[in-house]
Amino acid sequence: MISDALKASTGKVIKMENQFYVDSDHLSKEALARKHQLETDASSRTNHMEYLPGMEQIQSDIRERVMSQTEQYDYTVYTSADVSAALEHEQCSIEDFKALLSPAAGPFLEQMAQRARVETRKHFGNTVYLFTPLYIANYCENYCVYCGFNCYNHIKRMRLTMEQIEHEMKIIADSGMEEILLLTGESRGMSDVSYIGEACKLARKYFRMVGLEIYPVNTDEYRYLHECGADYVTVFQETYDSDKYETLHLAGHKRVWPYRFEAQERALMGGMRGVAFSALLGLSDFRKDALATALHAYFLQRKYPQAEISLSCPRLRPIVNNDKINPLDVHEKQLCQIICAYRIFLPFAGITVSSRESAEFRNGIIKIAATKVSAGVSTGIGDHESKYTGKESGSAEGDEQFEINDRRSFETMYQDIESEGLQPVLNDYLYV
Ligand code: SF4
After folding, report:
1. How many angstroms does the Cα of residue 358 sit away from the middle of ligand 1?
2. Architecture of the domain made up of 4-425
């Protein structure tokens, strides 16, 4: 069934060859007026702190603990003496971590990298995990102003059939890859939980590890998806600054900030083995967002000690001369500082660096702190055949969500990791 929300937000949905497309060239007048109103009149937007009907509310103090630390964090008060002391401590406290994220730690990047490297080797040896994402749909009912997939944008929308998904999976599995991350846009109407569950069952046939990056769901739905074969769940909070969040997520269920915040906990309550956290660094104050991301993982790990925890580190790329507009842009140096601080504070956590970053940066950071990288990446829909084998796919392809920077194939990435003296790992888990 085509989602009413999608229809209402975009005006027109058309069906061709068993696929649905949003005809955004012909957004209805009402939809355009609504978009304009959402952008210009804050009072027309819903309360982003209020749960929508059907959204589960759990009893948890983690949000309060993360946010009280984050709100109090004044990174300008830390000195080089605080940073030196943090690097000397055997165990990195929350206070030490705050110092390592502060501007005072900038000149200590070399020492931070050395310490991070020691921690990484202690907990992960010289391994680097490889995975690839598979976008199975790109419908979205949300209006995130920074994203090309948002419901008002003119892109080619698709949802793969189960046959198409299996075809894509076979091609990826034939390359040797053993871990897959399934992604959809955020549309319950167009990619409902049972559709995602069926995709998980297929993925379980071809891969040993199955991750999900989908819209947040309730505990019972996470339990169902886990039973279908999903091992872990990634949810990007985008920014932990709820006031800023409100101005960037103007419509759709994603607008509800606390429901998103609690997604990882619901996933663990539903039986998932692992959860991943992230802020899109650069949307708001990146030091506070990095602090909140790591504390979110830290407090959840203490409450659910069995959980496999990991962090991702995407950033908005700074643009030329943007320093005056946004002095808090995240350049590679700051990204490296954040990743090293993550590693020192959470030595056991996986750290993923995606193909949004350059090959040079990823080659460097896997020697220091990152433990997982994607390879053979396509952010389009249904295009693995053409990208992996050079053959025409024979079916329609959906548009890509964003430009990737590191286009290395799985084989090239594997060889490059080996040539850095590291060990590429495809899987470390067996179901018995
Ligand atoms: S960021 Fe995600 S939820 Fe927001 S518009 Fe893009 S695909 Fe949709």
Report:
1. 23
2. Alpha-Beta Barrel (3.20)
